[in-house]
Amino acid sequence: MTFDDKLLLTKMRIQQWYEYYNGKVYVSFSGGKDSTVLLDIVRKLYPEVVAVFNDTGLEFPEIKKFVKTFDNVIWLKPAKNYQQVVKEYGFAIISKEVAQKVRELKHGTEALKEIRRNGKIYKSGKLGGKLSKKWQYLEHAPFEISEKCCDILKKNPAKKFEKQTGLKPIVGVMRNESNLRRVQEYKTGCNAYDAARPISKPLSKWEEEDIWEYIKLNNLSYSKIYDMGYKRTGCAWCAFGVHMEKESRFKLLKKTHPKIWNYAINKMGLKVPLEYLNIEYGENE
C-alpha cells in the first residue's frame, strides 16, 4: 500500500468507528509520535473528540510537557504506582508474552507449569503454550517477573474511564511493533467491534516511515524527546525488548536523564534483572 492508500484507509476506519458509536469515542494519547499523528488525523475529521493521557509516573518529562500543549486532554492516574506493582508482581522484562509465561512457570498450577515447560497439543495438532527453552532458566531467577505492569498502570485506568464514560478508544498502535499485535490485528482487523473491549487501531497498516512522512507533510509538532536519540517514548525505564538492542536504552537514559536513570536502576532495583540478563545499562559510564 502507498502512503496515500494507508492514510485514506485510516480515515475510513476512523469514520466508521465514530459513526458506529455515534461520536462516543476518544483518542488514547501517549504524547509519542504515533498517537500525535493519530490525534491530528482524528481531530481534522472530528475536532471535538477528547484525548486521554495516562499519567503512569514513568513518562519522560519532555512527553508530559508536550501533552500539556494540547487542548481537551483528560489525564488519568493508575490505582497503583510502579514501585507497588514491582513489589507485588515483579519486573516487566523481555516481553509481555515471555514475562507472563515465566510468572506462570514460577507460580502457576502444576498442570500450567507442565504446559509452560513442554507445551500442549491443541485440536489443530499444533504445539502451543510453551515458554521458549531460551527463557526457561528465568524460572529460577532471584527476582519476580511479571507482565502485570502494563495492565495495572495503563489498561486498567483506561478501562475504568471507558466504563464511566461509555467512550470507545482509538489507539495509535501499529501491527509491526510486535508479533502479538500482528496476531491481534489479523484476528480482529483495524476496528474490533466485537472484542471484549472494543478498540480501534486505524494505524495498523502504517510503519514508522509513514509516521514521519505524515509529520513532515503536515508540519506537525512532536515531542523533542525524539531529537535526543530516542526511538520509542513509552515508559522511560521500560525493560521490554531491551535485550534485543545493540545499544541499551538505559545507557542513553543515563546520558540524557541521569536522575531518572538513578531512580530506575538503583532505587527501583532494575539493575538486578538487567545484570542477571547480562544487559549493559550504563553503570560504568
Short synopsis of the structure:
It is built from twelve helices and ten strands. It has 285 residues and is an alpha/beta fold. Strand 5 and strand 6 form a beta hairpin.
Task: Record keyword descriptors for this entry.
about 10% strand; alpha/beta; about 280 residues; four-stranded parallel sheet
Characterization of this structure:
This protein has a four-stranded parallel β-sheet. The protein has a two-stranded parallel sheet with strand order 4-10. A two-stranded antiparallel sheet has the order 5-6. It contains twelve helices and ten strands. It is globular. By secondary structure, it is α/β, with parallel strands linked by helices.
Q: What are the segments in which pLDDT stays under 50 over at least 5 consecutive residues?
A: 178-182
Summarize model confidence as the mean pLDDT: 93
Task: Please identify, by name, the CATH architecture of the largest domain.
Answer: 3-Layer(aba) Sandwich
Structural class comes to alpha/beta
> What's the story with the biggest beta sheet?
4 strands, parallel
Beta content: 5-15%
What's the number of helices? 12
CATH superfamily of the largest domain: HUPs
CATH class of the largest domain: Alpha Beta
